[in-house]
Amino acid sequence: MASPWSLSSALKGMFARPTIDDTTWDDLEDALISADFGPDITESVIDELRASVVKYRTTDPVDLKRMLRETLEERLAKLDPTLHLSNRPAVVLVVGVNGVGKTTTIGKFAKFLTNYGRTVVVGAADTFRAAAVEQLATWAERGGAEIVRPQQPGQDPASVAFQTVERAQREGIEIVLIDTAGRLQTKSGLMDELGKIRRVVEKQTEIAEVLLVLDATTGQNGLSQAEAFIQHAGVTGLVLTKLDGSAKGGFVLAVQEKTGIPIKLVGQGEGIGDLTGFTPHVFVQGLVG
Ligand code: GDP
Fold first, then answer.
1. What residue spans of the chain are helical by DSSP H?
2. Domain CATH number, residue 103
3. Do 155 and 253 belong together in one domain?
């Protein structure tokens, strides 16, 4: 089955014609825009392809398809998607606004890690809503992870983060995933809270990764959300969720090029196993066909 974000049906007519002509370029532009590459990236991809077509003196749409694949893959591969989790414990802060799939991602990520034999503890540092803590506990359990909860509702999030890292150090747990609040109504309060968590944890150990979770279905809106976190939270990697429900495959390139931060994980479903590392080659195969 084709991925929902696949361009292949939009590109079908174009590659069925015998030669590359003006209509080919118009169709390609429409396909890239509707897949949410955004106008600048669409233009630069098309410019690059026009130059390649001239350079290799081809008029064959099959060559153009191959060049499109190569261009997208090369651009996506410019940033390194490796997760740096070799510290012991490796502390990962997970940030992002409510509703993007943060809780689910933490459960899936825990599972991803425990499948590789790693031990994991999750810190419920979004202490504001008791229901959120319970939901996180359910996902942590599914992921085979321990959890550190606030001792009372509204406990200082930084102290929960501290206790989680302390438990990992005491019990030799390898990976710490810290859930954080995502109420964007209080943007400066939220950024201060994240700043405090970082400062407290950094006194205990180095922070291995700060992962920003973004919902791929929000497209260009997700980009503006990302900015505040990138400016204030020291983001080291992106997690794109809900790619299974998105026709906006181009967002993947847009978000990476506009933020300059690598996509490290991709969520493609609501199940515990639906999180994978990001592999440009596999992604582009799904996108272009
Ligand atoms: P949070 O508020 O950021 O913690 O978001 P949740 O983890 O509670 O997720 C919000 C909704 O998005 C839930 O209904 C999840 O099942 C759903 N969700 C999360 N990740 C994915 C994904 O990769 N694909 C799909 N289709 N749904 C997802």
1. 8-16, 22-34, 39-55, 61-76, 102-115, 130-142, 157-171, 187-204, 220-233, 250-259, 280-288
2. 3.40.50.300
3. yes
**Among the ranges given (35-39, 222-226, 273-277), the one the predictor scored with the smallest mean pLDDT:** 222-226
Can you tell me the mean pLDDT for 104-114?
98
Ligand 1 site residues (CB inside 6 A) read 98-104, 182, 241-242, 244-245, 267-270, 274
Query: Do 147 and 210 lie in a common domain?
Result: yes
pTM (predicted TM-score): 0.94
pLDDT tens track for 13-32: 788 889 999 999 999 999 99
Contact 190, 232 (CB under 8 A): no
Q: Is 82 domain-assigned?
A: no
Task: Kindly state whether residues 105 and 67 are assigned to the same domain.
Answer: no
Does 243 carry a binding-site annotation? yes
Both 154 and 69 in one domain: the answer is: no
Cα–chain-centroid distance for residue 40? 21
Whole-number Å distance between alpha carbons of 286 and 289: 5
Reduced to 3 states, what is the DSSP secondary structure of residue 38?
A: coil
7 and 35 Cβ atoms separated by less than 8 Å? yes
Give the span between the Cα atoms of 267 and 70, in whole angstroms. Answer: 24
> Does residue 18 belong to any structural domain of this protein?
yes
Placement of tokens 């599972």 in the chain: 111
In this structure, the residue with its CA closest to atom 20 of ligand 1 is 101
Is 103 labelled a binding residue? yes
The answer to whether the complex's ipTM is over 0.95 is yes
- Is 24 annotated as ligand-binding? no
Model pLDDT for residues 227-285, shown as the tens digit of each residue: 888 988 899 999 999 988 776 788 889 999 999 999 999 999 999 999 999 999 988 98
